[in-house]
């Protein structure tokens, strides 16, 4: 038993934690409220203090205080543990604070030391932000920086909410302040707040005692970047208008033990609840875009900071939603970024749409000047393939063979990124019709595309069965259980697939190990007959099968319980067929939505008929 977890549960009331997120009303021995995980008008979300748990009878989610915080805030268990421990006053032993996306240390002593170091850096960054905020509202920033932000349409309430500040122009203003608060220059360097330089980089009147150090952020507006729990990881700082053109417009915290730009999303801490409520996230290009969108009522908005969108950003965001609206600038650079981002998100299973503005204004400007037009643009966001098809047809004439070729090549990457066969087939047909070529011709172009995204062929550095086990549909996971049972109880062979329907046969055929088992009898089977490239995975799944059956193959127990194994196998096969049918129905429903959004009502009717046919099979 994890005593820290139990201690936290004993100290924290699950009701009190949940009421920090949603209002609850007393109903007999329990508390009720509107579920934060799906839209409902009648409360079906119940909290039971005696059992220290919660359950929604509408969406069937439930759990304890940890699962609630993980669901609401998009946190991993270690992150939720650290957050609730701090609230409960529980000291976590042998554990570094789990800043988002990082791995654990190997030894308990190292972890404990690392925890102290990171907590010190968090305190340093928080104090730095307070110093910057003070300068913006009561110091030198009040003269130019604050009026500039207000002129950009940001309200004082938003500026304070996002903790925007101002870094003074002096070389060591911040570092002198932090030294007075007992932080060392080494601490500041580790947090990314100072830069080490040689002696000749300073003028002769600089202090020799601090020779070689200066503040990273000077004469800039500062935007702190938070993790999902609200702790500051680093800063993005913008130069004031009218400054020296030789200066970079933005300076960002470098990679540190806390801040990793490929993982941090600006505004996520403020947006995380709204993302869950809206069911999607809006991704914009800049910090002020995020804040302006927040002010306009679109609080589910985030941005990357100091880098392009990465796989890690998307995997982190997918904890909260699988639907993404990209709202990038309409210039060439913005559209190139939108296409790359869309392909990456589609490859990771997101539903992606693109927001277009005919005026060419950025998100911040239109949020400030024309919020109604902004709302219309967001509601009218097009599915990514449709959006890029429209742009492609404007760029390439389809009246010539060369124009058709260029248009097909332009669209191939975005269609290739679609991970579901039904969606891809829909867009292959639709794009081919719009370009004026055959489906087969366009499909061959799509299949020839090789994405330059590093994870396009392998989302994780793992073998194929591990990837299937972690990321595939539930039906595929059941097939892996079937494989495991057959390996642990080979007397059940042969595994006949002759009476399986076509879609089940296709699913089986995609697992080489199960396909091998379906063609061999019990008398012919031995681990020596398994192909060499499958043996290590076969051994692993045989071990897992033993756990499912509660037997040990090595002690000859599998054959002692043939009925148990046969019953479990029959149950798994029935579950597999049922789940496969559900998945096909979900895919058809999604394809219908896509066809409807594209205005293809005849195809929507065809899909509806197929959906009813599949439903009748159950």
Please describe what this structure looks like:
- Helices cover 51% and strands 10% of the residues.
- It has 618 residues and is of the alpha+beta class.
- A six-stranded mixed β-sheet has the order 12-14-13-15-16-17, sandwiched between helices. A five-stranded antiparallel β-sheet has the order 1-2-3-4-5, covered by helices on one side. Strands 6-9-10-11 form a four-stranded antiparallel β-sheet, covered by helices on one side.
- Helix 5 (108-138) packs across helix 9 (185-191).
- The radius of gyration is 28 Å and the shape is globular.
Q: What topology does this entry show?
A:
Elements: H1 3-11, H2 14-19, E1 25-27, E2 30-33, E3 45-48, E4 53-56, E5 62-63, H3 65-73, H4 77-88, H5 108-138, H6 145-151, H7 156-161, E6 165-167, H8 173-180, H9 185-191, E7 194-196, E8 213-215, E9 220-226, E10 232-239, E11 250-252, E12 265-266, H10 268-278, E13 281-284, H11 287-295, E14 301-304, H12 311-317, E15 323-326, H13 332-347, E16 351-354, H14 363-369, H15 371-379, E17 382-383, H16 384-395, H17 401-416, H18 421-435, H19 439-448, H20 464-471, H21 474-488, H22 502-509, H23 512-517, H24 532-549, H25 562-597, H26 601-617
Parallel strand pairs: 13-14, 13-15, 15-16
Antiparallel strand pairs: 1-2, 2-3, 3-4, 4-5, 6-9, 7-8, 9-10, 10-11, 12-14, 16-17
Helix pairs in contact: 1-4, 3-4, 5-9, 11-14, 16-17, 17-18, 17-19, 18-19, 21-24, 21-25, 25-26
